[in-house]
Amino acid sequence: MKQLAVTLLACLSVASVVCAQSKIYTTPPAVNYPRVNVATWYEVDPTWPQRPADIGWGHIPGVALDRDDNVWIYTRTNVAVQVYAPDGRYLKGWPAPATNSSPHFIRIDRTGNVWLADAGLHTITKRSPEDGRVLMTLGTPNAPGCDATHFYKPTDMAFASNGDIYVTDGYGNARVVHFDKNGRFIREWGSLGVAPGQFSLPHSIVCDAQGRLYVADRNNIRIQVFDRRGRLLDVWNDVLVPWALWLTPNNEILVTGSSPMIWGFDPKYPTAPVGCPPKDQMVVRFNGSGKVLQLWAFPKAADGEEKPGLLNWLHGIAEDSKGNLYCSDIIGRRVQKFVRKTDPQSQRRR
Length: 350
Prior knowledge:
This protein is mainly beta. It contains 1 helix and 24 strands. About 5% of the residues lie in helices and about 35% in strands. The protein has a 4-stranded antiparallel beta sheet, with no helix packed on it. The chain has a single domain, classed as Neuraminidase, CATH 2.120.10.30. The N and C termini lie far apart (about 65 Å).
């Protein structure tokens, strides 16, 4: 009987707490909060792009923008490189170079040349923006390796102000490789591991106006910052699993990925890196010192249930001159345009 009384008393206590909490939100507030949205947010444009019926999309790891805000995507199908206008019109495309090609990232340099990282062919190619003609090849096609003339599944490339080229190499190796603007090998650094300066899947890279190199060290849940000679300057740990980096004109770094995760195993993706499948989808904006300036989380879609505004294995990102985001999916097999929104009533300044 005593135990029953104690149980009843506990239930009454819980009920009173729930009742008290519910009153907080159902009774008129003591303060009339200003319902002003002080955060920047993004809304999907479900009409973008107007992809022709005969143009397919596969996994889309790479997206980039040219000086006119045209959107260049790099997808694992034919047509491999596709270009869309800011309003969504299809402009042109280039076929995949070979059946064993595996597109990864696409970049456009300061002079408008298009660069492709092909993990399947083990190459980085510089191409004419007009017709896709190959202007330079780094690495040896179809020959993986780890020296001055070979990569093993390279992932991304970045460019210094003097034209020097930096390649993250990548899935098979664990290094950054430095070339001059003519493709002459200069140096390399990095090895497989978890210590500062080591890499476990260097997945993306950008170079800011001061020559600092930011490397997405994906499996190690960090971004590492180096000078142009490979000297480690800083490490940003435990913010997100970084998949892709995008450098803005004012030297802010946008990073896609998921919130920090530990190694797991999913039978659908038995050989995938850490964070696959991701538990959420995030974009984080940093300044060059590693301060977080903005974070926005997108809803994650279940496989096969991708709807406008949902992301599924967010991989690539680009930001246009108006602050709109273009986000590319692996499992979702698409690029979406997210329009930047702010509340006119907000006086918030970054």
